[in-house]
Amino acid sequence: MEERIKLKEKVQHGTPMFPINVYENLFWYQSNYLLPHWHDEFEIIYLEKGLASFSIDGQEYRLLPHQFLFVNCGSIHSGKAIDSPEAYAIVFNLNMLITSEPDICKTKYLQLIERRKQLVPSFVEDSYLRDVIFNLIEVWKKKEYGYELYIKSNLFMIFYHLFNKGYIVDSSFNREFNSKLEKIKAALDYINLNYSNPLSTEELSKITNLSKYYFCRLFKEITHLTPIDYINKFRVEKAIELIKNTNLSISEIAFEVGFNNVSYFIKIFKEYVGMTPLQYKKKDII
């Protein structure tokens, strides 16, 4: 259990006093792709302009302008830009709405969401929720005095509406899927920690206690990528970080992120980013 806790995403969303952040640029670099990932925080994705598709726990959703998605705590999600999307992600720790004192809001509603006993449906068409989410983002951008009160009250209103209108669903019937999800999350965590070392589907399948064939099938079913595709794409992301933040050579970066063949690294990088690592480096300098 201790090891499992260490593998969780270590990104601090917001501050300890106000654990929420609104991210404005979801799609990075030239790839227009958001790799599959997970975190304990709840997330709301809102599309202001353009077109984008998202995958949440293996289900695909294509968003039009002013549509939104809910990402439950611990869900695996990814995204793909289709047509110049302007997308926002509201990521927050549910603890910001939960007191340490005896609290009916905590025990009757929010802890059930936090612990995945009940789930918010990923896609809801509801004009009230759309307006509350939009207003939250606008107030976040301006950050006028007292904005924290408005943000927190809007989050309460979102959950009030979801419970009051009967959108919330019980997750107990889907224990088998939740078990599968945990296995893929364990594989993602292992890759994220060991991407600089040699990795194989055999190794990953052993970690998840699944056969190689079933592991590969389940991984693709939930992430829409093969394990090798995910490993390569994750390594390219790490390579871009090194290109932008270090003076390492392209060869040094290739080996640093786990590629043992520089030509293969360049090939994969170009497929994902649309240019070679050297071209990207020169562009970044300019």
TrEMBL record:
Keywords: DNA-binding, Transcription, Transcription regulation. Pfam families: AraC_binding, HTH_18. This is AraC family transcriptional regulator. Gene3D superfamilies: Homeodomain-like (1.10.10.60), Jelly Rolls (2.60.120.10). It comes from the Bacteria. The keyword Transferase does not apply. It comes from Anaerocellum danielii. InterPro entries: AraC-bd, Homeodomain-like_sf, HTH-like, HTH_AraC, HTH_AraC-typ_CS, RmlC-like_jellyroll, Tscrpt_reg_AraC-type_HTH. Residues 185-283 form the HTH araC/xylS-type domain.
